[in-house]
Batch of 2 targets.
Target 1
Amino acid sequence: MNLTLKVWRQKNAEAKGKLVTYKAQAISPDMSFLEMLDVVNEDLIKKSEDPIHFDHDCREGICGSCSLHINGQPHGPKHAITTCQLHMRSFKDGETIVIEPWRASAFPVIKDLATDRGAFERIQQAGGFVSVNTGGVPDANDIPIPKVIADEAFNSATCIGCGACVAACKNASAMLFVSAKVSQLALLPQGQPERYRRVQAMVAQMDAEGFGNCTNTGACEAECPKEISLTNIARMNRDYLTAKIFKEEEV
Amino acid sequence: MSNFAQTFSSSLGKKLIMSLTGLFLCTFLVVHLIGNLQLFKDDGGQAFNAYSYFMTHFPPIKIISYLLYASIIIHAVYALVLTIGNKKARPVAYASYKGEANSPWTSRNMGILGTILLVFIVVHMSNFWAQYHWGELPYAKYEVSLTDPQDVKVTPIPFNASVAEPAHADYVDSQAGKKVLIAKDLYKIVNESFQQWWYVALYVIAMAAMSFHLIHGFRSAFQTLGWDNNKFVPLIRFLGVWVFGVLIPLGFAAMPLYFFFK
């Protein structure tokens, strides 16, 4: 396969970036998208040019490192996968592919296609945890949890924090991420003591990071590689409004 | 900042305001449509003019109407504040952005649709509402026979600056055997306005915008409130599309078309 790439190149956070055109030649359709970029980078290195900087780690769809806004969609055109799970057979020979970083003021570009997603870490630190007393190891299955609740909490917990929801949202809103992180704990008994403080603290941090506001377009849900659903956002709204208006629980 | 101020300046608090004002405006639409169906009554505007007087003079309804004006303004101002925030959240736009791949068109264009509606509301209110309150309106006198309700005598009283305005009256003249109504003739203004094709076109376009605005807006308001109970979501979606997206806009659009083609 031969492809034309239009890649966002930006020296650092302060520099102005632009789209630069590259040729990707002799690409196997069985390569992943990241492997295709590796091939392009090898060429660039041989020509002693600066290789394209992009985030990647596990390359099996579980770490949430790889990002890339490909032809107008986060993680490319396929449903429910990360960029490392996207294969070149999903593209046509001779196609032009536009590759951009996540675009959000809360995710500043570090270099080229790599963005600083530290905002997500700070939201997690604000409240995405449970306090556990030290002591003896409790018995397994000591706390009864209905299967449906456990499953729902697990569904929310599958969020890998990649930021595709922010990238897909026309408002660069992080509500799907935050609501998944709120939900995975709010659903379980272990998360109850801090439930209402957590949702307030995490929403306050989300606002402070400068993410946009949800307009319920559903783009995040459609683009999420882990298929986190909008139900989580409704649950977060419910908990937040309960905490602020009905319960008056202080942070 | 107090807890109250903090709540309503947060992203979710602002969304709550949008949701509640939006739903209040939706309930208003239902009342407005049902009331205005009296325009279709072929009685020279008697029922409609009596209704107009009632809606502008009955104190509880006056209070609700102030709430309504406030809701329109708050909904628009918060939409503007939220939109500015959303634009700031993505300072560098994507060179390639495929919104249609992951979200409905209506949901991505609420701002444009809302702006069309705001322009429409300003035109609509300045033409009818402001006219009714402060304009130079003609009056009409209806005399209905007590023995035969079909026997109605309509006397138009055109506006005359040199004569004092006639007083609104609604009484039974038992000696003459008649029920008499003297009211501002808003029906006439409505009828005359909808003889202009461009005015009818503006109404029909605005109602199309309202349809798309509510197809997304109605169900979206419930999502913002956190009301996504699986038992009710199908009902909410049905109401949002078929009642607020189809029935109500069609009902309103029928009014200018009725007068234009009458």
Target 2
Amino acid sequence: MHCKSPLLLILLSTIHFSCWKYRGSAPNDGDGYSPPAPPVKVWGYKPVYGVESTAKTISFTSSPRQVVSGGNIYAFQNYIFQVETGYGIHVIDNSISSDAHRVGFINVNGCSQISIKGDKLYTNSYDDLVVIDFSDLSHIREFSRAKGVFTEYRYYSPIAQPPGPGFYECPDYGNFVVAWQMDSVTQQCYKSF
Amino acid sequence: MTKLKYLNNIFWSLVLLSCEKTGDASANLSTGKGGSLSKFTIIGNYVYAVSSHFLYTIDISNPSLPSKVNESPLNFDMETLYPYKNRLFIGSKTGLYIYSLEQPSAPKLIGEAKHGRSCDPVVANDSVSYSTLKGSTFCGPATSGLYVYDVRNLSAPVLTKLIPLNEPIGLGMADSALYVCNANEGLKVYDIKDAYFPIEKSTVAGPGFIDVIPYDNLLICWTATGINLYDITNQLTPVFIKNIAN
């Protein structure tokens, strides 16, 4: 049992109406649908953890990256940004729309949102607000950070849950999930979609 | 096209110089513009963000030292955030909520329109707000479609029209046109010269329309296969420019 506090339990039980922790019998989620009771070991998603300093490092890759889980879009001057949910931000050069193309990727683990003011990009890395200076595309860097401000994102950011439905190993929210991999899992949470 | 955009940017920067606190979601040089599914927005010196149960206010007047100044518990299942002037329009699974930013560090709830449980992005201006609701297995039983609210009296929004749509998601508003992403059924284009009674003009075909940003003369669409760009010099008839593949 990784839940560390009653508060977390309350958060989990209220937020994750679609996700539940297996306790020996399948709950009815109200729609008349009950997932099958799992065996002791199942094939499912297992969280991969990173140490905080590494998990939260911001970097820029000056080559395009394939969009796997596209997220929010943002237009700013001659650029278009798109979140890669959980992993970072795609940068598109839109100086000439008929020739718009990807120019790079800002690596931000735990990222789901983006907004911009001036030459600063504001995003989230897990529950932190991160300010990124992109005044010089070749030197995109972390400018500042407010740690832990988005209380709920820690448990409910996209990367805090597996990418697909099924049983998964309940993550330890005291650590930072940097990816999910398929494995034989024993501790089981369930995600219905 | 680029020159036009440049001139338009200058125009907006001049307009906005005089009203620094204006968070109008129209394209401007200082803050750009986000899609309707966003949970982050910047108005003046503040970042506003929603998670399912909280509205966060972060002071960024000194970008090197951002600090949280407010965290308001909210009704359940906040979905999206849309800025207009000194107001925040928050779409949730249970309704539309309007917050005043008279005191920017402490947003205050001034109006709400409740509807059945559903997903709910929103765009708005002084007098009208448009929401899409998707009553699906995930999002609840409300009728799927485009909901048009008269918000001239902010404390009591009035539903003026409901246009049923099968899979509406993100939406975006230009001066005379409203664009509604309808997943695999394409992008719906509405004439909104009569703001409270949109008239369907055309449908842009294509796979998986999710969200949209009208950005000057450019329409930026997030689709399942990539970013699609359209010229909307004529706002009611988008002309395809480019697909930037995933």
